[in-house]
């Protein structure tokens, strides 16, 4: 995969693999808790230290999952 700062335009309808960053946190989930995962086309954090600068992400995006598309969320578990 290319370096995060390199620009790689894609054509409409082209399907490409991506890795989406998730910022580390020290969150304790109690038994029975649930975790929601949202993919946004913009920064979700309001804190300036977590914002991206100079983004070129535009348009509508489709996330393909299942079947021929290997899609997973890797979450470490520390006991």
What would your notes on this structure say?
It is a single chain. The model has no long low-confidence stretch (mean pLDDT 78). The termini are far apart. It has no helix or strand. The protein has 79 residues and is largely without helices or strands. The chain is 0% helix and 0% strand.
Beta strand count: 0
Overall pLDDT confidence: 78
End-to-end Cα distance: 32 Å
The best one-word shape is: extended
How many whole angstroms does the radius of gyration measure? 15 Å
As a percent range, the share of strand residues is under 5%
Oligomer: single chain
The main pleated sheet reads as: none
> What count of helical segments does DSSP give?
0
Question: Uncertain runs with pLDDT below 50, 5 residues or more?
Answer: none
Helix-strand category: little secondary structure
Helix content: under 10%
Question: What is the fold's blueprint, element by element?
Answer:
Blueprint: no helix or strand
Core attributes:
single chain; extended
Provide a compact summary of the structure.
With 79 residues, the protein is low in regular secondary structure. The protein is extended, with a radius of gyration of 15 Å. The model has no long low-confidence stretch (mean pLDDT 78).
């Amino acid at each position: 995969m290319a370096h995060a700062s390199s620009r790689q335009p894609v054509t409409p309808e082209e399907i490409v693999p991506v890795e989406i960053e998730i910022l580390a946190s020290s969150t304790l989930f109690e038994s029975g808790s649930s975790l929601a995962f949202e993919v946004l086309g913009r920064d979700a954090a309001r804190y300036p230290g977590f914002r991206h600068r100079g983004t070129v992400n535009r348009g509508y995006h489709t996330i393909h999952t299942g079947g021929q598309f290997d899609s997973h969320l890797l979450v470490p578990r520390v006991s």
